[in-house]
């Protein structure tokens, strides 16, 4: 197999593109990221690996705006992310300039995925080592959407999804616990999913909430801690309820 | 025949533009908005070749927005003015834009400011400026009555004086004018001065 994983334009005999698969490995090593779509709110959450004491954490924003109504979180190589995000931001403005309309979430997702695919079919370049979660509201209908792209260039829409480290556990949790939510409930669901794989506490997660009227809003540590405390209290209450009744026999 | 002028007051800046869309001897419409709102605190009044005017100001507007997304903070008025001038200068020796610009903005740290940028990319930071045939009249009027730190009432009064002068002395004077203001609360339309009312035709 070693001969088929150098130049990515080459298929291996059993139909694999090894560079793309290795890129997916890079994603699996990246920080956990989760996205949940509610009826009027969309939430993105990202694991914050311990920040160095001397580092200014404000310069390490993992959830970014692509336009007033679109936001992106990613898992994988952050430097690749910077390039992709820059191209996407330019495309958002370029679209507004040429057709006088803001992009739809699907359009910009298709654009980013198309870019990622191009780099799997060119000579001398390697694929982007990241998967993205793209959220936003349709500029006219106001319908919220969540999309995911990956290094191969495929994309699809989701009600809730996770990527990066331990994404399988988070996705399982979401599959078990997903229901239509709105407002604060959506935030809670996203944070609960993240807490499955991340050490609890506002210091370790970054959460941003997007609403139609207020765009993207980053939650500060105090707010996250408050929601985490609520979740832990609910968990404790559920545990107590489980343990309680059997003793009264 | 296009008239665009602007001035800086106490904590605000005004830009006034005529509202006529003209092709040769035909007046297409008289409610054309020639003052583009670049972002929350910047106004760009433009006069000149109609296609270039729309194209160039929209291009600047989208680049100002892109800067804000890339960097998390908005451009200062001075930066936006220099960027605009740079774009005009680059295009000058290839395929020039025939657009004259009056850029007004409000920055929290430095207050209101006004920039005069002409189509061959010269730029000046000024307190009052004007373009077009109307400038002969509005500039003279402003030279006579302008003083620094004018209140909004005084400034609007001066604007009305300029408009009256243009209407009474310019042979093909534009019938309608639009006034926009930018201050600490943002950039917004202040009002119209109309002598022909075609409101039932929707503005583009």
TrEMBL record, chain A:
Alphabetical UniProt keywords: Cytoplasm, Nucleus, Proteasome
Coiled coil: none
Source taxon at top rank: Eukaryota
Domain Proteasome alpha-type subunits: start-end pairs: 4-26
GO annotation terms (biological process): ubiquitin-dependent protein catabolic process
Pfam families to which the protein is assigned, alphabetical: Proteasome, Proteasome_A_N
Cited SMART domains: Proteasome_A_N
Subcellular location: Cytoplasm; Nucleus
Keyword Nucleus found: yes
InterPro entries attached to this UniProt entry: Ntn_hydrolases_N, Proteasome_alpha, Proteasome_alpha-type, Proteasome_asu_N, Proteasome_sua/b
GO cellular component: cytoplasm; nucleus; proteasome core complex, alpha-subunit complex
CDD domains cross-referenced by the UniProt entry: proteasome_alpha_type_7
Subunit-level organization: The 20S proteasome core is composed of 28 subunits that are arranged in four stacked rings, resulting in a barrel-shaped structure. The two end rings are each formed by seven alpha subunits, and the two central rings are each formed by seven beta subunits.
PANTHER family assigned: PROTEASOME SUBUNIT ALPHA/BETA
Family affiliation: Belongs to the peptidase T1A family.
Protein name (Swiss-Prot/TrEMBL): Proteasome subunit alpha type
Lineage: Eukaryota, Viridiplantae, Streptophyta, Embryophyta, Tracheophyta
Automatic annotation (TrEMBL), chain B:
Subcellular location: Cytoplasm; Nucleus
InterPro entries noted in UniProt: Ntn_hydrolases_N (IPR029055), Proteasome_alpha (IPR050115), Proteasome_beta2 (IPR035206), Proteasome_sua/b (IPR001353), Proteasome_suB-type (IPR023333)
Family note: Belongs to the peptidase T1B family.
Keywords: Cytoplasm, Nucleus, Proteasome
Main location per the UniProt record: cytoplasm
Domain of life: Eukaryota
Protein name according to UniProt: Proteasome subunit beta
């Amino acid at each position: 197999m070693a001969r088929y994983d150098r130049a990515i334009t080459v298929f291996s005999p059993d139909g694999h593109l090894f560079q793309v698969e290795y890129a997916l490995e890079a994603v699996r090593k990246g920080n956990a990221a989760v996205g949940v779509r509610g009826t009027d709110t969309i939430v993105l959450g990202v694991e914050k690996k311990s920040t160095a004491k001397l580092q200014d954490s404000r310069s390490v924003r993992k959830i970014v705006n692509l336009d007033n109504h679109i936001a992106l979180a990613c898992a994988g190589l952050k430097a690749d992310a910077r390039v992709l995000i820059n191209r996407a931001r330019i495309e958002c403005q370029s679209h507004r300039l040429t057709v006088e309309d803001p992009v739809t979430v699907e359009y910009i997702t298709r654009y980013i995925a198309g870019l990622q695919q191009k780099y799997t079919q060119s000579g001398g370049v390697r694929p982007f080592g990241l998967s993205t979660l793209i959220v936003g509201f349709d500029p006219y209908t106001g319908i919220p959407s969540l999309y995911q792209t990956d290094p191969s260039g495929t994309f699809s829409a989701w009600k809730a999804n996770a990527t990066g480290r331990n994404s399988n556990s988070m996705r399982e949790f979401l599959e078990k616990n997903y229901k239509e939510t709105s407002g604060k409930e959506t935030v809670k669901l996203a944070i609960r999913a993240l807490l499955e794989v991340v050490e609890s506490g506002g210091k370790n997660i970054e959460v941003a909430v997007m609403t139609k009227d207020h765009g993207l809003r980053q939650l500060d540590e105090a707010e996250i801690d408050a929601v985490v405390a609520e979740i832990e209290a609910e968990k404790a209450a559920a545990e107590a309820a489980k343990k309680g009744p059997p003793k009264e026999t | 025949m296009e008239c665009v002028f602007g001035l800086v007051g106490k904590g605000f800046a005004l830009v006034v533009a005529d509202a006529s869309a003209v092709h040769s001897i035909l007046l297409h419409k008289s409610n054309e908005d020639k003052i583009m709102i670049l972002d929350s605190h910047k106004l760009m009044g433009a006069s000149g070749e109609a296609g270039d005017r729309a194209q160039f100001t929209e291009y600047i507007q989208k680049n100002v927005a892109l800067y804000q997304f890339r960097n998390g903070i908005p451009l200062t008025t001075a930066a936006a003015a220099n960027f605009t001038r740079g774009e005009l200068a680059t295009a000058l020796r290839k395929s020039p834009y025939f657009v004259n610009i009056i850029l007004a903005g409000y920055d929290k740290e430095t207050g209101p400011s006004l920039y005069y940028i002409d189509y061959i990319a010269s730029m000046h930071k000024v307190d009052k400026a004007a373009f077009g045939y109307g400038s002969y009249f509005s500039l003279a009027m402003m030279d006579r009555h302008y003083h620094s730190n004018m209140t909004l009432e005084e400034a609007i009064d001066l604007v009305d004086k300029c408009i009256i002068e243009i209407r009474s002395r310019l042979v093909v004077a534009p019938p309608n004018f639009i006034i926009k203001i930018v201050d600490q609360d943002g950039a917004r339309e202040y009002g119209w001065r109309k002598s022909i009312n075609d409101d039932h035709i929707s503005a583009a």
